[in-house]
Amino acid sequence: METREPQPINTAETHDVFSVIVADDDDNVRTALASLLDEHDGLHLVGLTDSGSGAADLCADVHPELAVVDVMMPAGGCDAVAAIRQVSPDTIVVAYTARGDRHTRHQLVECGMTEVFVKGGGVDLSTALYDLMQRA
Amino acid sequence: MNEPFLGAVDERLEIVAVERERIAGELHDDSVQVMTAVSLHLQRLHARVDNENDRALVEQIRKMADDAIERLRHMLFVLHPSSLEGDGLLVTLEVYLESYVEAEGIEWTVTGEQDVDLPLGVSALAFRLAREAISNAVRHANPSRLAITIDEIDQHVIVVVEDDGSGFEVGGGRLKAGHLGLIHSRALAEAALGTYVIVSSVGAGTSVTIQLPVAEPV
After folding, report:
1. Where are the domains of chain A?
2. Residue B213, pLDDT above cutoff 70
3. Shortest CA distance from A39: residue in chain B
């Protein structure tokens, strides 16, 4: 589990900057996703981890505004949402998953995911997450 | 039917299913993740490139990476859908139809009982045979509708795949023309002590009935 120093956010002079953590058990995906999000002007990476329980620990420490979590990882998906809700109820949790069918989406939204993003889904992910946070 | 013998068949089906699951798991944990990381890094690169032509090229490469992920995902699904164990055969067939048939403009329905308690080997083989029947209909029969029903009767799982497509003469042209998939499907069902029955005629659609025994109570 890795954390970064909080930065001043949401100042009157700048547009909104949202703090975010990334949880994915694949090193390549976690690193690439974290870098992509941190390079967006409106997102600030404050931690990354490789499990759902690690995500909950991070949320308890830094209370990020957004958590992007893998589904097929230890304690991922709905387990991760439940654990994060316990320690940081205001954190918005979104799924980043290989499965994007209606049944899976419904299950993930039912258990508390605000949105479901599919790996390789053709979406500009950092922009989509920033837009989501602005609407939230 | 001899229960111990049927149990041995179920065990063999389970071994096949577990092996296919292992291969699918390795593909997911390896190739899909690497390609996902490539796609994410290309999104980073896209934001850094100023030249319009270069940006278009990066975007083109990224789309190819996403296509590769989609093809790998399809391969994983064909090998061993991860939904089979947690969600059962009915939901897995719905996911398949939604993901790979709906885009063809074909209406579909799946009706029947929830089946999460089916032995993994049996549900995996039932899915594999049903998927092949669906795929054959889509590729060869130009249907507008597909109707799939699942029943569990007398320790048998019965899956019926019906289409309203062009149909064919059973035992005639389509089989003789080298459609080995149908012959292979029938052989797979019979090896599991089940049956694979095709009813079709030219212009009247096709019905495929897959019946597999289950050693344990369904």
Report:
1. 14-131
2. yes
3. B44
Task: Give the domain ranges of chain B.
Answer: 3-79, 84-213
Nearest Cα to B165, choosing from B132, B205, B214?
B205
Query: Which of B26, B32, B33 should one mutate to test binding to chain A, selecting the residue with the greatest count of A CBs within 10 A?
Result: B33
A-chain residues near B93 (CB < 8 A): none
- B48-98 pLDDT, tens digit each: 999 999 999 999 999 999 999 988 988 888 888 878 888 899 999 999 999
Radius of gyration of chain B (CA): 20
Could you tell me what percentage of chain B is helix, strand and coil, using 3-state DSSP and rounding each to the nearest 5? 60, 15, 20
A-chain CB neighbours of B95 within 8 Å are 101-104
Question: Please, what CATH class does the domain formed by B84-213 belong to?
Answer: alpha beta
The CB density around residue A49, as the number of other CB atoms within 10 Å, is 24
Is pTM, for the whole model, over 0.90? no
Cα–Cα distance, A55 to A65 (Å, whole number): 13
Number of neighbouring beta carbons within 10 Å of residue B173: 11
Residues 12-71 of A with CB under 8 A from B: 26, 28-29, 31-33, 35-36, 39
The strands making up A66-70's β-sheet, listed across from edge to edge, are: A2-3, A43-49, A18-23, A66-70, A92-97, A115-118
Task: Measure CB to CB from residue B70 to each of A32, A33, A120 and give the nearest one.
Answer: A120
| 3-class state of residue A7 by DSSP | coil
CATH class label, A14-131: alpha beta
Give the model's pLDDT for residue B175: 56
